[in-house]
Amino acid sequence: MTAQDERPDSPRPSGAGPLLLGVRHHGPGSARAVRAALEAARPRVVLIEGPPEADTLIPLAADEDMRPPVALLAHAVDEPGRSAFWPLAEFSPEWVAIRWALEHGVPARFIDLPATHTLAWGREGTSTAEPEGPTSAAEEPAQQAQGETVPDTADERTGEGSGEATDENAGDDGPGPVADTVRVDPLAALAEAAGYDDPERWWEDVVEHRGTGGDAFAPFTALEEAMGALREGDVTGGPDRDSVREAYMRLQMRAAQKEFGDDEVAVVCGAWHVPALREKRTMAADRALLKGLPKVKADMTWVPWTHRRLARASGYGAGIDSPGWYGHLFGAPDRPVERWLTKVAGLLREEDRIVSSAHVIEAVRLAETLAAMRGRPLPGLTETTDAVRAVMCEGSDVPLSLVHDRLVVGDVLGEVPEAAPAVPLQRDLARLQRRLRLKPEALERELELDLRKENDAERSRLLHRLRLLGVAWGEPAVSRSSTGTFRETWRLRWEPELAVRVAEAGVWGTTVLAAATAKAEADAVSARSLADITALAEHCLLAELTDALPVVMRVLADRAALDADVAHLAQALPALVRSLRYGDVRATDTRALSEVAAGLAERIFVGLPPACAALDAEAAQEMRGHVDAVHGAVGLLGDAVGAVHGDLRVRWHSVLRVLSGRDTVPGVIRGRAVRLLLDDGELAQDEAARLMGLVLSPGTAPADAAAWIEGFVGGGSGGGMLLVHDERLLGLVDAWLTGVSGDAFTDVLPLLRRTFSAYEPGVRRTLGELVRRGPDRGSGVAVGGSGAPGFAADLDDDRADAVLPVVRLLLGLDDDRARIDDNDLAGVAG
Predict the structure, then answer these.
(1) Angle at 617 between CA 611 and CA 620, to 5 degrees
(2) With contact defined as beta carbons under 8 Å apart, do 66 and 415 qualify?
(3) Among 23, 385, 384, 380, which residue's Cα sits nearest to residue 201?
(4) How far is CA 132 from its chain centroid?
């Protein structure tokens, strides 16, 4: 039986025209009021603000597998990245209207400007294009307050493409400052008129806390009058977005009135548009506004959405501050405050905080008391938050931030039925997710994979393939439990805009494997640098793209043969060597890869010494990083290369000896080469001390000596521990530093600070204790000899006395000695 068959006499007077239900999007109070008004009026058709191309998708809202929050996704067929979303939550008035129409057998239709125009409007080169989003920070609240269904595009955040974002102020010349202020935030103007300083509190008191009794149409009548007053004088002379959208909505409304009758039509739209829809304008004038609009071919479907993406903080123009709280208000059958605080208590208990039922009772009492003191009809989110902070969190905002993140905002992820339209790649991904038991979730979680297990290995391959396609569902993370190559840790989080990325990746193939293979081959051909190709080869091995790897390796070999830049070769080698490890864990044949890696290493050995000559400080630092990377890569190569290449480690150590002894090589590289040889056991400690003594001799420029020290013991490579355990080296550094002149000390100080600041706090503290004790006066420090034998256990009184004048000057203890010669300050070594 349809609604028309059982429809009672409508309380609305005859001839009143269409029922215009102006709402705030994503508001539970508006949603309840819409349902009550529809029940009272029982219209024969329901018109809803939204893209008309989605009319065929409306029946899916009744599917048992459809669980909001969801969103209508529109994307250009020839450019999937050009997309737009229309989010709907369970407490959205539009969703309630759709569900009511489906339950009562009443047609439901979308009447906003078609997505074919919406997606084309922001294209570059389109003469009628308006700005694609808020053009200033002051304009964004207009969308939030007026409740516009802003199609929130992923491209708005990345600066790519141009999805539609409804701009309430587009083309607004405004009658004056007052009108401009009203257009910025209508709810703020209404709240201020009512004596409220917070628009959200006013909305909660007037709408969200209002019951459904009494006249079902009164709230909409009052809101229409208020919006009409706010829009007075808002006459635009040109086709701005609002006027174009409203012209299309009026045409659709007239068509429905002609089909069903003037009094049989209900319209659910943003309250801002109601005065414009009520306005009498000719069809010719409305059609003139729509003439010549740009078009693109668009597809539409339902996609899952999240409460977090409904939040205003996500950048969504029509967002709300507390989607989780609004969802609770809409779903709670009774006693919403008590039920909410019970949820909060449950969450805090899960986090091992001591919260009892007595806490809940006291928090309810406090929230109700605060509401009464503040003159509010019921406790709102502000009162419950204050009560939770005082009673359950003991005044701390740390656990309160968890409540806000998990409950006030929430991580609810909607679901759409399999019958919803989708590109073939999306269907293949959904099939793999079910088979591998990888359910998309809005809450970020860590996934530990053991690659020795087939299911985990397949999960790893899927995640790597999606990353290669630009679908960043998972990001690799550092494993906490193991460092073995058979372990992988992923940080997973499904964001709604990933549906757009899947649609974009659909151009590469109909399955995840085929699309990733085609994308890898195309990326190899278009790669700009050798390092990009080696990184791509590593991704192909991780994703097990066996068909793409030969193409990538062929391009890699060709580029490596032509590239004579040692820096490029050094950047490319580490990724290749890392990839060789996957043959053990993933059963991947990496013989071709090992040959290319060995050839790359040979060319680096030949070209590195001349490439390190005559470098400036910045280039020397960069080359030092390349030396470290090649050293690690050669160590990993080990026995992976064939006998035809001999022992690569021996030849690499020969290259390091050449670098350590050439005066034309910058000090930071020479020092690093000595350190690497020492760590590999190719250089005795006595020899390392001799080389350091030579570099730190008076004949070496202080800046070059400081650079050598930075290369030898700098960075986070354990240089500090080397100085702690080999006090001869520390004695050499100490003796050299105390002998540097005042002017030279100022020049080398930044290098030394950079060197020693990278040490662990405990290492710095230990070195400070050793230096504080001072060297053994009986043994002396033989610079250029065998080095100091160690540091004494007693304090060096002479060195301590040398700093006393400076200390007295800083403390103001001796004004007569305030003038201290600069040479005396520089010569504190004594």
Answers:
(1) 30
(2) yes
(3) 380
(4) 22
The DSSP code sequence of 49-91 is SS-GGGGGGGGGGGSTT-BSSEEEEEEETTEEEEEEEEEE-TT
The arrangement of strands across the sheet holding 79-88 comes to 79-88, 70-76, 298-304
Q: So what's the pLDDT on residue 386? A: 94
The answer, yes or no, to whether residue 784 has pLDDT greater than 50, is no
Q: Which residues make beta-bridge pairs with 268?
A: 21, 48
Per the CB < 8 A criterion, the answer to whether 129 and 86 are in contact is no
Cβ neighbors of 669 (< 8 A, separation 6 or more) are 612, 615, 620, 623, 624, 627, 659, 711
Tokens of 197: 């300083």
Band of residue 157 on the pLDDT scale cut at 50, 70, 90: very low
Listed residue (696, 679, 703, 764) closest to 731, CA to CA: 696
- Give the residue carrying structure tokens 């039986």: 1
d(CA 549, CA 478): 26
Confidence of residue 242 (pLDDT cuts 50, 70, 90): confident
Is the per-residue pLDDT at 131 higher than 70?
A: no
* Amino acid code (one letter) for 744: A
- To 5 degrees, how large is the angle CA 749–CA 753–CA 755? 120
CA 265 distance to own-chain centroid: 44
| Spatial distance between the Cα atoms of 703 and 709, rounded to a whole number of angstroms | 10
The one-letter amino acid code at 322 reads S
pLDDT at 189: 76
Mean pLDDT (whole number) for 453-466: 91
Residue 181 token pair: 């202020």
The model's confidence at residue 478, banded by pLDDT at 50, 70 and 90, is: confident
Once rounded to an integer, what is the mean pLDDT over residues 607-613?
Answer: 86
Q: How many CA atoms lie within 13 A of 760 on its CB side?
A: 11
pLDDT in tens, 163-217: 333 333 333 333 333 333 344 567 777 777 777 777 777 777 777 666 556 778 8
N-to-C CA span, the chain = 105
- Do residues 307 and 69 touch, judged by C-beta distance below 8 A? yes
8-state DSSP, 208: I
- Is pTM beyond 0.70? Reply is no
What is the CB-side half-sphere exposure of residue 146 using CA atoms within 13 A?
A: 26
Reported as a pLDDT band with limits 50, 70 and 90, residue 827 is very low
Helices marked H in 662-740? 667-679, 685-695, 702-713, 719-725, 727-738
Q: Write down the H helix ranges in 168-290.
A: 177-184, 186-193, 199-203, 218-230, 241-260, 274-278, 283-290
By the 10 Å C-beta count (0-12 exposed, 13-18 middle, 19+ buried), 620 is classed as buried
- Omega into 69 within 30° of 0, i.e. cis? yes
CA distance 554 to 382: 63
- Cα dist. 752→173, 288, 712, 738 in Å? 60, 73, 12, 13
Closest to 571 (Cα-Cα) out of 599, 617, 534 = 534
pLDDT for 197: 72
Least confident of 350-364, 401-415, 749-763, 782-796: 782-796
If pLDDT is split at 50, 70 and 90, which confidence band does 239 have?
Answer: low
Nearest to 171, CA basis, from 144, 112, 131: 131
How many C-alpha atoms does 96 have within 13 Å on its Cβ side?
Answer: 28
Return phi, psi of residue 763, to 5°. Answer: -70, -45
Residue 739 CA to residue 783 CA, distance in Å, equals 11
Q: Which residue has the tokens 């209002």?
A: 210
Predicted local confidence at residue 452, as pLDDT: 83
Is the distance from CB of 207 to CB of 222 less than 8 angstroms? no
Of 303, 304, 246, give the one whose Cα is nearest residue 275. 246
Other beta carbons within 10 Å of 436: 15
Tokens 């048992």 label which residue?
Answer: 64
Contact 389, 374 (CB under 8 A): no
